[in-house]
């Protein structure tokens, strides 16, 4: 049986503020094999870790990420939904800060390029440059719903692993992944059927479904030898993974 890796979706986001250092640190403590995070660009061109283009859901503030400088974003409190349970403020982190921390761990990291709504010109190259500067090529997977970004990364940094994100099922996704020189793909878990996983693995294409929180689905995917799962609850997923193996 293939060992399925556990990636913490936006960190340990079930219990801690998503895409914050607190969520990433707690994901490591919970035994995750990797973290998943989202990157956008600030008004002054800095790489920042936040999922939504708008600020309100995670910080309670109005406006867009792209309209604030990195220093302004870092002054915001990303524990908006956790203020009743967490005393300490959790800022929006820079990608550099997260990756510098990551470099001293055994964790892998899936960076999702969030450039579907706003193009963020040059973001792919900035992410590649930072990965190279920190010598993290072997620890990073770059993914995106924007498959043009995946192609761009593959052309400019073929040594960094890539995976298109799929919102719906497509025919023979392993063929599509290979056609854009990706080494894997990240489908919604509903479209990660056992046969799809089997065929993809036979063609040496990794399958990492998102966002898998249901216990029976976690069990199914692990038993199907899925390459990895992306989950809000890495502690539960690790427990199930350990029980199966």
TrEMBL record:
One of its GO terms (molecular function) is phosphoric diester hydrolase activity. It comes from the Bacteria. It holds the Pfam family GDPD. CDD domains: GDPD_TtGDE_like (cd08563). Residues 4-241 form the GP-PDE domain. GO terms for biological process: lipid metabolic process. It comes from Mesobacillus foraminis. This is Glycerophosphoryl diester phosphodiesterase.
